[in-house]
Amino acid sequence: MTPQNQLEIHGKIAAHPFAELIAEIGQATLSGSLRVASGPRKTMVYFAEGVIVYAASNSRQHRLFDILLRAGTIGKQELANHPNFANDVEFAGGLVSSGIVTQDELSEITTKQIEAVIIDALTWPDGEWLFNPLARPRADLIYRISAQNVLLDYGRCIHSTVVADRFESMDEQFALLAMPNGNVNLLQHETFLLAQFGDRTLSINELRQTSNMPESGILQALYSLWIGGFLARNGWNAAFSVRQLEAIRTAKLQRVKEARTIDAPKAPAPEFPADELPTAEPVKIPDAEISLDDYLARSETAKSHYERLGIESDTPLAQLKISYFGLAKLFHPDRFHRESPELLRRIQVAFTELSHAYETLRDQEARNSYDYKLRKEAESEAKRRAEGKSEIITDADKRAEQGSENFEAGLSHLDDDDYESAAKCFARAVHFMPQNARYHAYYGKALSAFDKMRHKAESELQSAANMQPQDSEIRLMLVQFFIDMNLLKRAEGELNRYLQIAPGDAAAQKLLAGLRA
């Protein structure tokens, strides 16, 4: 996307995902339009002082005529009487004037339509975006959309390793922006974390020191609360720079655009026969034939995303979508807000897991990776059976596997001299396996590349040496750290202590002789 005026800001979704852009626009209370595109898919979202007020998409599933056809509100014959049905605004006006729907019903339908557009764009892994602070929607197209619950659920569904990559460092700072109202259900650990702020600004490191939560849980909660609009975030690679925000705020803004439909297909001529409208044929999403109790039991015992969705591993994408939307239609938490807190919590957790399963399997690359993981687990189980071990993979086994995967990824980044990515991977490896000395040692080695993290680097290396005092590799990594820091006396002392344990280590003797010389 090419900017058309000096105030427009653009970028890549991979660098700044849609959810984060919504959060930044909300935190900065900006007005304007955000256009996002991924391949043929295009979406336009309008903001008024940081709040979403309208959204439109060129995807057929988000067109008003298709929504009404699927819901059974309108039939093909009635659709044929509205030649401008491809234009949502004109079509909506015709529906109200003809009495098919009331204005209140249309407002409710449009609000849900906007929310569906936002949910769809949240899942786009790549593409481009462009923010135009001069654009304004038409006065009759203003709907105040609360996306907090949608964004919270999105943040909770992202894999912890992906969330960790969205943070620049543990020095990033957060401050309380808003307290939740009665329409938002925070999880217990999110409420706890939010309560730590008060009127203080806290870094991630400070939160780690005052909370017993694991690092991955803190990062997941911070990310969800930030994109949900409860926390302000500072000290990171924002999409909107301070200079750009200042330019927008000081500019004399004028209304230069009206909201319009985006790349809408041309409507057929009025005389086009109703029985020849293939594009208007509704795709029926059947209700899932499963009770709430069975759905919850299946979700809580499922061993894979496929089991959670009730489909086979070779199910095509079209059927996958039907299964997901059928379950989401029946078991969305909003339908059960009057149930007991315990049952509502189970429903919310199940829906989060269901959404995560769908988002993983709907993307072919992510699905391939997930299928590979399932095959590896099956091979591991078969190997355990052959060795006479239990087929059940315990939580400890899973943590060990995740630690190993992150450690190997960190070594790869280290080979490429990408110390920042390496440090993140090693930190996750330490989180999963805190008693593994090598993980601590390599975490310290990666951190030593950053001036502000050298105290932490020394701490990690010392911890590793204390865990494995006879490990030559770890001990020499600590010695090399002291040499790099020009702390030669400490390096010599470390070598002397090590040689008392392992007097025959030739590499350590050679290094000590070099230091003394």
Low-confidence spans: 254-286
Distance between the first and last residues' Cα:
62 Å
Which range best describes the helical content: under 10%, 10-25%, 25-40%, 40-55%, 55-70% or over 70%? 40-55%
Number of strands: 8
Count of alpha and pi helical runs: 23
Question: What would you call the structural class?
Answer: alpha+beta
Coarse morphology: globular
Major beta-sheet overview = 5 strands, antiparallel
The averaged pLDDT comes out at 82
What percentage of the residues does DSSP assign to strands (E)?
5-15%
Question: Can you put this structure into words, describing what you see?
Answer:
By secondary structure, the chain is α+β, with helices and mostly antiparallel strands. Helix content is 54%, strand content 8%. The strands form two sheets. Strands 1-5-2-3-4 form a five-stranded antiparallel sheet. A three-stranded antiparallel sheet has the order 7-6-8. α20 packs antiparallel against α21 and α21 packs antiparallel against α22. The chain is globular.
Keywords:
517 residues; alpha+beta; five-stranded antiparallel β-sheet; 23 helices
Task: Summarize the entry for a quick read.
With 517 residues, the chain is α+β, with helices and mostly antiparallel strands. It is built from 23 helices and eight strands.
